[in-house]
Amino acid sequence: MGGGIAGLTAAYDLAAGGHDVVLLEAADRVGGKLRREDVAGVSVDVGAEAMLNRRPEGVDLARSLGLAVEHPTVASSRIWTRGALRPLPRSLMGVPLDLDQLVASGVLSDEGVDRVRLEPTLPPEVIDGDVSVGDLVSRRFGDEVTDRLVEPLLGGVYAGRSREISARAAVPQLVVLAERGSVLEQAAAIPTTYDLPVFAGLPGGMAGLPEALAGAGTFRVRTGVTVRELVRVADGFRVTLGPTTHPEALDVDAVVLATPAAPTGRLLTDLAPVAAAELAAIESASMAVVTLAFRVSDVPDLAATTSSGFLVPPVDGRRIKASTFSFAKWGWVREAGRGALDREDVLHLRTSLGRHREATALQAADEELVAASLADLALAVGLAARPVDTHVQRWGGGLPQYAVGHLDRVARIRAALDAVPGLVVCGATYDGVGVPAVIGSAHRAAGELAAPGTMEP
Ligand SMILES: Cc1cc2nc3c(=O)[nH]c(=O)nc-3n(C[C@H](O)[C@H](O)[C@H](O)COP(=O)(O)OP(=O)(O)OC[C@H]3O[C@@H](n4cnc5c(N)ncnc54)[C@H](O)[C@@H]3O)c2cc1C
Questions:
Q1: Do 5-71+204-282+402-450 and 77-189 share a fold?
Q2: Ligand 1, pocket-test mutation among 259, 266, 269, 444, most atoms within 8 A of CB
Q3: Which of 249, 269, 337, 425 is in Cβ range 3.0-4.6 Å of 346 for a Cys bridge?
Q4: Ligand 1 atom 50: residue of nearest CA
Q5: Helix pair 273-280, 406-417: axis angle to 10 deg
Q6: What is the CATH number of domain 5-71+204-282+402-450?
Q7: What is the distance between the alpha carbons of residues 15 and 457, in angstroms, rounded to a whole number?
Q8: Where are the domains of the chain?
Q9: How far is the CA of 334 from the centre of ligand 1 (A)?
Q10: Distance (Å, rounded) from C-alpha 386 to C-alpha 375?
């Protein structure tokens, strides 16, 4: 149950194994955080808009469904900090790997750079269990690196705070390097030139992926049905769904729970109380994506940009935390905008707002979030035109927070669920929030369920 990319992938895998699968989704459409909406006559992503290409699961799944894959046409993101847009120096999730580039970028003050220069003199880290990314980075590189580089990058992925997010879960490579010694001294050994582009997307939007999975027709899809209860019965599980006034019972052999942590925890309260308690302890961050469409003729300078957008460190006190110039980043978005509005060309870009424990920043009308985005864009890139169309997508509790100790917590959840044969979990709560990681967790869940002796086809 849960018709995001995790639930759909697990359903697709199980159906391919010959199982009779029904997918239950509370919303009126499948896809979860992969969703598109019409803005100025063009259907654009209003949730996830890219996937890592260096992890194979997302691209492999798309190709196996016959979907074309596209890579960003520009890949130069910048940081809006200390009053200017600055190039993003070579980094590992914001941790600088090239001192010369860092200095040239101007992202840090002179004192901040001096502190970074001390890193090679520090002894290797001894990390007992886990540590937050921010604490580890501050210890080695100073607070400025955490605040101006790591915070915006982690904020982009988790909408979280670097001093709370688990280093072992979010940036395991950094932990390995720091335990060995100086990160900067080992930086040269970290490859940065790959044969493969870092990111991939789908022409028409990432939302095409869930639609293709559901559209394959290999399993049944029921939307608009909220699963409210899950109990064990003699041969499997009884699922209760629908409104309390008209409940419907569905008896099944096995269950994949691909819902976010909070509903998953609620559904497991009686069946697996230890797992339920662990799930209840996982917090989430809310955010909003504001999509703005402009007439190209109104924004000629912006239309010529070769940048894919910029990130904003919270320490700079802006309202937005990032902006993606979708028209510059994705060839298909630019193409789709040609002649889209009364035969005039339009371009699309988006901003994102909202960080963990800053839900109040989102407690504003849609128009206010649009106005805040326009105000920040005016300061950052001098954008003064009025948009021809806007769309605000709110993602309440949209991103799970991988707090310090997350990996151990997930191990405890899985251990508790071992006592409930025929039930598995997957999704962004467990093994990574990025689309490929989520797909990977779904493959794993389906594989566990289909293992010999667990469930008959
Ligand atoms: C704004 C935003 C931008 C992002 N950008 C990127 C990106 O560019 N690249 C990237 O790799 N990742 C990105 N991510 C992360 C990624 O999109 C998600 O982690 C991933 O899509 C989550 O998939 P999921 O299937 O685990 O969960 P979801 O997509 O949350 O799906 C869970 C589904 O369960 C349903 N559900 C909940 N409760 C019930 C119930 N009781 N009964 C039935 N159904 C229920 C929900 O309606 C939902 O459809 C982004 C996330 C957000 C929020």
A1: no
A2: 259
A3: 337
A4: 48
A5: 160
A6: 3.50.50.60
A7: 9
A8: 5-71+204-282+402-450, 77-189, 285-399
A9: 26
A10: 11
Helix (H) or strand (E) holding 197: none
Residue nearest to atom 51 of ligand 1 (CA): 48
Residue 399 alpha carbon, nearest atom of ligand 1: 53
pLDDT per residue as tens digits for the range 123-144: 999 999 999 999 999 999 999 9
Could you tell me the pLDDT band of residue 213, with boundaries at 50, 70 and 90? Answer: very high
- Indicate yes or no: pTM above 0.90: yes
Q: What architecture (CATH level 2) is domain 285-399?
A: Alpha-Beta Complex (3.90)
Bridge partners, 292 (sequence order): 349, 390
Atom of ligand 1 nearest to the CA of 52: 11
| Most ligand 1 atoms within 8 A of CB, residue of 13, 33, 211, 264 to mutate | 33
Q: Among the atoms of ligand 1, which is closest to the Cα of residue 437?
A: 11
Q: Considering only CA atoms, which of 446, 426, 8, 10 is closest in space to residue 212?
A: 8
CA-wise closest residue to 88 among 139, 150, 16: 150
Select from 1.10.3110.10, 2.30.40.10, 1.20.1250.20, 3.40.1410.10 the CATH code of 77-189: 1.10.3110.10
Dihedrals φ, ψ of 131, to 5°? -150, 155
Q: Which residues line ligand 1 (CB under 6 A)?
A: 1-7, 24-27, 32-34, 47-51, 226-227, 258-260, 263, 287, 289, 395, 398-399, 427-428, 433-435, 438
Residue 344's DSSP bridge partners are 341
Reduced to 3 states (helix: H, G, I; strand: E, B; else coil), residue 202 is coil
| Rg (the chain; Cα; Å) | 23
Q: pLDDT band at residue 453, thresholds of 50, 70 and 90?
A: low
Cα 30 to its chain centre, rounded Å, is 17
pLDDT band, very low/low/confident/very high, at 395 (cuts 50, 70, 90): very high
Q: Provide mean pLDDT across the span 281-307.
A: 96
**How far, in Å, is the centroid of ligand 1 from the Cα of 441?**
13
